């Protein structure tokens, strides 16, 4: 094992943003290595993860690439902040045995490389392009901490029922576009275990995108362009909105008006409404609203709705105001509600992302899939935790009428969703793609012989 493979700290690692804070011994919510050993031994869906990462290449079809799974990088985070990079496995059993033996506090999944990543040093003298990523799911990482300037209920890694809907609306906007605009079908949304969501786009077309193509896809979603020092963070250019932005606005505006406006009390103080007034380019309009709100004696229950309607009237109804105020209305909604993606995560094949069904070492929560069609029902505070799962196993210990241990716990429905709604349709598609590719090669061979 080399220094590159075992390291302390994060230098040189391109991983998702959920920081791990591991202390020796017991971690928050009863998270410790002994509990994790039981989880990996009884509940973690090893076989399903192998099936997913194989994409149909674990069968006997002549089009199968038997080396495919063995060229995938896995990274393990062990206790005491030790990282094992470039792990690879040639079978489902090898993956399962290594996980059970090493009991990683976190598992990250990387790309499929041109050669076995564990043997990359053997190819070091052969040239720059021998060891290189050749396939990787198109991934997205959305973190609630990136909304700290527009949420007032929580900050940092804390989330609650008032601000979590920002994640829900992000799922709706991005998932709809990935399916309708790009034609992707096999999309897996996963709770990060603490403060955000991850998206895995697993269609063959998506996995084979180059870095340049990935950058183009992420740029398509790039609306929120500001930073901490920017006053205006969203600029919707052009005489009319792109159809994607029109559709996004139809999702975001009702959410902003019906939920976010009130849950975050956006007009509840001078400091908060000044942030909104700063987004209005016409100074006379902003001054008029400011004066009205400073003199306002509206009851607290109606404050946000009344002030928002007054702002809308100034921006949307009046005919004499400066050009661009209607667009300003849309920019305000997008500034507060549009998904804030970590774009660098999506642009490069070699980014590592936490595997589904890991247990977050800070919260003890399992990184379970989220159904995008029912994402508004998802509540991060009710996600199964390591300690509750083990309690459920102990409580139901006498039952032997289930095929899998997880069916005796609250994790069962998440694994069932993963298998039936994501994995089975994905593998069916992979089989069809292999069959079509094989038949095309056979036909090409016949055509060449007929000459």
From TrEMBL:
Keywords: DNA replication, DNA-directed RNA polymerase, Metal-binding, Nucleotidyltransferase, Primosome, Transcription, Transferase, Zinc. InterPro entries: DNA_primase_S (IPR002755), DNA_primase_ssu_euk/arc (IPR014052). Its EC number is 2.7.7.-. The keyword Nucleotidyltransferase applies. It is an enzyme of class 2 (transferase). GO terms for biological process: DNA replication, synthesis of primer. The keyword Zinc applies. Its cofactor is Mn(2+); Mg(2+). GO terms for cellular component: alpha DNA polymerase:primase complex. GO terms for molecular function: DNA-directed RNA polymerase activity; metal ion binding. It comes from the Eukaryota. It holds the Pfam family DNA_primase_S. NCBIfam families: primase_sml (TIGR00335). Belongs to the eukaryotic-type primase small subunit family. This is DNA primase. It comes from Thalictrum thalictroides.
């Amino acid at each position: 094992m080399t220094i590159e493979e075992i390291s302390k700290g994060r230098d040189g690692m391109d991983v998702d943003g959920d920081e791990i804070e591991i202390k020796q011994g017991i971690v928050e919510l009863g998270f410790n290595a002994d509990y994790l050993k039981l989880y990996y031994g009884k509940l973690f869906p090893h076989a399903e993860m192998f099936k997913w990462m194989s994409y149909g290449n674990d069968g006997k079809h002549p089009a199968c690439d038997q080396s495919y799974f063995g060229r995938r990088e896995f990274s393990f985070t062990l206790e005491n902040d030790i990282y094992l990079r470039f792990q690879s496995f040639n079978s489902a059993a090898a993956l399962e045995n290594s996980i059970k033996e090493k009991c990683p506090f976190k598992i990250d999944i990387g790309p499929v490389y041109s050669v076995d990543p564990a043997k990359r040093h053997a190819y070091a003298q052969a040239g720059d392009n021998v060891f290189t990523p050749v396939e990787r799911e198109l991934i997205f990482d959305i973190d609630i901490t990136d909304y700290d300037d527009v949420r007032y209920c929580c900050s940092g890694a804390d989330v609650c029922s008032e601000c979590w809907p920002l994640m829900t609306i992000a799922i709706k906007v991005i998932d709809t576009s990935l399916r309708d605009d790009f034609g992707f079908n096999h999309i897996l949304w996963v709770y990060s275990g603490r403060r955000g969501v991850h998206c895995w786009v697993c269609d063959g077309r998506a996995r084979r995108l180059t870095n340049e193509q990935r950058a183009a896809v992420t740029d398509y979603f790039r609306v929120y362009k500001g930073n901490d020092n920017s006053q205006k963070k969203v600029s919707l250019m052009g005489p009319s909105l792109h159809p994607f932005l029109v559709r996004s606005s139809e999702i975001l505006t009702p959410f902003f008006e019906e939920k976010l406006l009130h849950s975050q009390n956006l007009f509840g103080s001078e400091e908060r409404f000044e942030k909104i007034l700063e987004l209005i380019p016409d100074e006379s309009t902003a001054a008029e609203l400011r004066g009205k709100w400073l003199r306002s004696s509206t009851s607290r229950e109606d404050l946000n709705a009344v002030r928002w309607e007054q702002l809308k009237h100034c921006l949307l109804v009046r005919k004499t105001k400066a050009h661009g105020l209607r667009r300003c209305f849309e920019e305000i909604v997008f500034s507060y509600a549009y998904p804030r993606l970590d774009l660098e995560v999506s642009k490069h094949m070699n980014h590592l992302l936490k595997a589904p069904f890991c247990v977050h070492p800070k919260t003890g929560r399992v990184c379970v899939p989220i159904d995008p069609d029912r994402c508004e029902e998802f509540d991060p505070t009710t996600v199964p935790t390591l300690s509750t799962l083990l309690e459920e196993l102990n409580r139901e210990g006498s039952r032997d009428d289930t095929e899998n241990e997880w069916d005796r716990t609250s994790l069962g429905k998440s694994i069932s969703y993963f298998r039936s709604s994501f994995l089975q349709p994905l593998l069916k598609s992979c089989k069809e793609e292999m069959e079509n590719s094989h038949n095309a090669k056979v036909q090409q061979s016949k055509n060449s012989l007929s000459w």
